[in-house]
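Can't paste images in this forum, so I'm doing it all in text. The chain is below; anyone willing to post the predicted structure tokens underneath?
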Amino acid sequence: MVTTTLTTRIPRSWVIPSQTAGSSRAVNEATLRVLTFLMFCEIFLQRIALPVGASQVQVILPITYVCLAIMLRRGGLARNSGRMTGYLVAMAGCSLSALVCFLRQKQDTSFTSLLLLLATYVPFIYGLRPADARALLPRVLDRFLIMITALAGLALFQFAIQLVGVPYTDVVHDIVPPDFLMHGFNTSYPVQYGSSLYKSNAFICLEASFCSQFLGFGIVVCVLRGGHWWRLPMFILAILSTVSGTGLLLLACAGVLLAVHKGAKFALSALAGVSLIVLIVSFTPASSIFAARATETSSSTSSGSLRFVQPYQRTWDSLGKDPLTVVFGTGPGFADRDASAFFTRTGLPLNYALVPKLILEYGVLGTVVFLSFIVAMFVRGSQSFVLSGSVLIFYTVLSGGLLAPVVTGLGLLLVAWFTVSPQDEAQARLDGAGPAPPNSPPSTQRRAHAGV
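Text version of the structure:
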């Protein structure tokens, strides 16, 4: 095994194989059912929200807490002392930055935003036992593939019925009361200005870009599981129906990671496959649309500029030359209010990704401690550095994921709860070696209290 500076053990095989170790434990089957339910909610209920005063909370957050409590009670998850330490350090750094901003009476700061940050990342302090993590991850990924296949089917259906003349309609918006739908997302968006053809979001995704990214993860997982190849054409066509480049960017990053892992032969094969897809698309009417999307960051009104250019420019301008603002930021919630004011003024949705939002709201101090915590959660002890790298790109660059439970939840379900560091394994062996106290369950069913 290769050991990095994060003591991450990189598996020699790029495939995530099925394993039988620990799979016979009754608690594993119960945990798998809860994880499957949570995964379903993560994918298919991402547009549903609960009104809380004047703001909203994605329904996936309270569902995550309920599922977390069930798995803790049954012994499926256990608190991890190393994760707890990382969480406390990260939240202390962000809270200190927020306190300084409150004391400086910075405008547009929100105590609610800070509380939501603290609550969103509590689930990261828990994890599965090493044996259970290895046994359950392949099974969770297989169920993820089934759900993404259904998502791809919905995306293709939504786009196909438009092609045959059925006018676009937001079905979910027509069914769910407005107070219980997430606001502030470009759910319905034409493929280009003035077109009657709308990008596919599979009806249930927050945006077409989210649909594209989830489908991209479907392709990544399909490759990592080393099978189900018949799904790939379906996933690729579904991504094209979203007319969103973020899923393709995710695939490009995953392809680079796979090439590093698998070598030049895979890189050449992947390049040939991509070239064939590009050639086929070039003979379709979609070629002009994708060509325009490839250069759209040069336009200040394009989604590429609003996602990948202007948030970074505005963050740089807002920090200015004030050393205290650079170190401690402008206060929690500032990026959201800035985006709202920008939308009111221009009618354009500004999308702050995690990095510019962190720097803008919590300064260099909060950014360094928080990113250190997140990288450790997604990378240290990962069973697949390709999957971890893809999740990190999705989390930090492609989506506004700091306070989005749909983003953090995917990171938990694909990587964070399944990481196994050497210290976790050593602690699990020590826990299993000791005698069981009187009237306690067998050692195979005791909770692991792993230290990183």
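Confidence is low (pLDDT under 50) at residues 1-10, 433-452. The chain has two domains: 15-76+128-294+381-424, 78-108+296-379.
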